[in-house]
Amino acid sequence: KLFFTDYGNAAKVERCDMDGMNRTWIVDSKIEQPTALALDLINKYVYWLDIYLESVEVVDYQGRRRQTITKGRQIRHLCGLAVFENYLYTFNSDNLSILRINRYNGTDVQALARLDNAKEIRVYQKRPQAAARSHACDADPHGMPGGCSHLCLLSSSYKARTCRCRTGSILGTDGRSCK
Length: 179
What we know:
The chain has about 180 residues and is mainly β. The chain has strands at about 1-5, 10-15, 25, 35-40, 45-50, 55-60, 65-70, 80-85, 85-90, 95-100, 110-115, 150-155, 160-165.
């Protein structure tokens, strides 16, 4: 799944399949300007910053069990969001510091370091990632991803895929090759 925020006409947090299909709103009320998003892939939670409402909130992948992690004026200056173990990590553009926030109680907030300028934050760990299982976009015997001539996008599951073309090309009737 792909998760994203939108604060156009109606602010929301959404999810869709990697090919853009099955677009679903998971948060569409009491939300104004969601500017950063982070996923807890293990427990299937979505965290986001709302700089207008000055809050950090969380829901599960279906938009249930919504909770506010922390609220206050300091949220207005945060950009970027990452989750790792018991903490959320973000960057305060007002005082140029990396912050660590306890994601369970929101009260344990620590400044870890200062940076001159940042707009995003990511957490990387040294532990090796688990091997990915085979999926519909694996290369076929001819080396084409999922049998697609240009782009292969995972669909509703790891077993389904959609072929797409680069700008300027159109998908042929076979659903795999571009012209």
